[in-house]
From TrEMBL:
Its EC number is 4.3.1.3. The modification 2,3-didehydroalanine (Ser) is found at residue 147. This is Histidine ammonia-lyase. It is found in: Cytoplasm. The keyword Electron transport does not apply. InterPro entries: Aromatic_Lyase, Fumarase/histidase_N, HutH, L-Aspartase-like, Phe/His_NH3-lyase_AS. There is a cross-link at residues 146-148 (5-imidazolinone (Ala-Gly)). Contains an active site 4-methylidene-imidazol-5-one (MIO), which is formed autocatalytically by cyclization and dehydration of residues Cys-Ser-Gly. Pathway: Amino-acid degradation; L-histidine degradation into L-glutamate; N-formimidoyl-L-glutamate from L-histidine: step 1/3. NCBIfam families: hutH, PRK09367.1. The keyword Secreted does not apply. GO terms for molecular function: histidine ammonia-lyase activity. Belongs to the PAL/histidase family.
Length: 515
């Protein structure tokens, strides 16, 4: 799909790239004609229930532990408005715009399946908010990952009603009614079931999963690059990455990581310089030799998580739902366990990849293990400290990543007077994974910065063309070896190169696409 194309939203599953393009880059959306037809058809069934005397959860009853109360028809509009206002109870820092936009898009997709009974006019407001760049202010705390991401989605639903607080396209925080009026968006008065349908989904945690998967695909290629540069800088061997050795343990992620490292190290004069028989080392340390096994396992974890995310993107999550045969049934599909588990699993993989990267960095700074490099890569060790404290920063992040790897999904706090007596904590798992992805970005940046300096110190021996290209792009922002300088801006410069994909692009300019 080209950048100027509109993403059409219908009953069909959303593509990963479409979620990223709308959430992160502001791509416009459009509800398809089939979506409008499906919504209109299911809405008819909800209106039948709303006009009848038979109790129907969310249509003519209260919610959660209050579901036993039958609501008089005259109060059913107020029921929906009260639900949204009371559930918009988030607290803490504002979550990132891309997370809220992902959540809005995914909720719009569920509405478009026609299984929620929401009117097309209500879905149109959500469509208009996305296209106008109006983002409801959503807070860090409020979701238990069951009965949907209730509080976060309620803040979105509040905006659809023209209430609450939003951030506009220019980034200004404003009252929702003021922003909607400026952009010509008419808020709606929610009808039967609509408040519940707008908040009863796993869209927040799923949005964070899709965003993390996108970032990790780039970061794991970056991890192969930083590992290859460290192997080169530490005068390690690439023989352990041989395809025949990797085939003895046929994990696909491992094979891909090893293939990347072989490609990245091809043609290295540094590697060739110690193949003359003078090297007495039999084998390298685990952090070098086992790099494909760890990065590969992380790749396979990402692949599993992507399968789960793909299934969720094909889902219609609400309670109750309108089935194709017209039945309106309660269900438990809002439980976030499938998403929560893989969010936690990814945080474990992130922590381990980062931990191995930090160990390689430490080896390059230790004269006892760096095979001829100066202590801490300093210009004048003792007067200069080199990258000593850069490794401290890296170690502090790795320690935090280990804490973030503690799973959220094993916890459960009963809520709603024990009606909702088991919850997934998937939103919390998503929040900590986002912090973990940022941490891995920074850990890899420090390894790259350190490895580039070590490679420069191996002169006159030249690095491989691919690793040399990465060192070259780093040198466009950060000077080479020398006396001590203000190091924090240099680390941040390489963090940006990792985050925006410049490191991977530099390597791939030589190698072609990495796996």
């Amino acid at each position: 799909m080209r950048d100027n194309e509109v993403v059409e939203i219908g009953p069909a599953p959303l593509a990963f790239d479409d979620v990223i393009s709308v959430a992160r880059y502001g791509r416009a959306v459009r509800l398809g004609g089939d979506a409008i037809a499906e919504m209109a058809a299911s809405r008819g069934r909800i209106e039948e229930l709303a006009e009848g005397d038979t109790p129907a959860y969310g249509v003519s009853t209260g919610f959660g532990a209050l579901a036993t109360r039958h609501i008089d028809p005259a109060l059913r509009g107020r029921l929906q408005r009260s639900l949204v206002r009371s559930h918009a109870a988030g607290s803490g820092p504002e979550v990132e715009t891309e997370v809220t936009r992902a959540m809005m898009l995914l909720r719009l997709h569920t509405l478009a399946t026609g299984h929620t009974g929401v009117r097309p006019v209500t879905a149109r407001v959500l469509e208009s908010l996305l296209n106008a760049g109006i983002t409801p202010v959503v807070h860090e705390y409020g979701s238990l990952g069951c009965s949907g991401d209730l509080a976060p989605l309620a803040h979105v639903a509040l905006t659809i009603m023209g209430e609450g607080v939003v951030r506009d396209r220019e980034g200004r925080v404003r009252p929702a009614d003021e922003a909607l009026k400026e952009y010509g968006i008419e808020p709606v008065e929610l009808a039967a079931k609509e408040g519940l349908a707008l908040i009863n989904g796993t869209d927040g945690m799923l949005g964070m999963l899709v965003l993390a998967l996108h970032d990790l695909e780039r970061l794991l290629r970056t991890a192969d690059i930083s590992a290859a540069m460290s192997v080169e800088a530490l005068l390690g061997t690439d023989r352990v990455f041989d395809a025949a050795l990797q085939a003895l343990r046929p994990h696909p992620g491992q094979a891909a990581a090893a293939a990347n490292m072989r490609t990245l190290l091809a043609g290295s004069a540094i590697m060739a310089s110690h193949r003359d028989g003078s090297c007495t080392r039999v084998q390298d340390a685990y952090s070098l030799r086992c790099a494909p096994q760890v990065a590969g396992a992380a790749r396979d974890t990402v692949a599993h998580a992507a399968v789960v995310a793909g299934r969720e993107l094909a889902s219609a999550i609400d309670n109750p739902v309108v089935l194709a045969d017209g039945r309106v049934e309660s269900n438990g599909n809002f439980h976030g366990a499938p998403v929560a588990y893989v969010l936690d699993f990814l945080a474990i993989a992130v922590a381990d990849v980062a931990s191995m990267a930090e160990r390689r960095t430490d080896r390059m700074l230790d004269v006892a293990r760096s095979h001829g490099l100066p202590a801490f890569l300093a210009d004048d060790p003792g007067v200069d400290s080199g990258h000593m404290i850069a490794q401290y920063t890296q170690a502090a992040i790795v320690s935090e990543l280990k804490r973030l790897a503690n799973p959220a999904s094993v916890d459960s706090i009963p809520s709603s007077a024990m009606q909702e007596d088991h919850v997934s904590m998937g939103w919390s798992a998503g929040r900590k994974l986002r912090r973990a992805v940022d941490g891995l970005t920074r850990v890899l940046a420090v390894e790259l910065l350190t490895a580039a300096r070590a490679i420069d110190l191996r002169a006159p021996h030249a690095p491989a063309p691919a690793t040399g290209a990465v060192t070259g792009v780093i040198r466009e922002s950060v000077a080479g070896p020398g006396t001590d300088r203000f190091l924090a801006p240099e680390i941040e410069a390489v963090v940006r190169l990792v985050a925006d994909g410049a490191v991977v692009s530099a390597a791939e300019s030589v190698t072609g696409p990495l796996a």
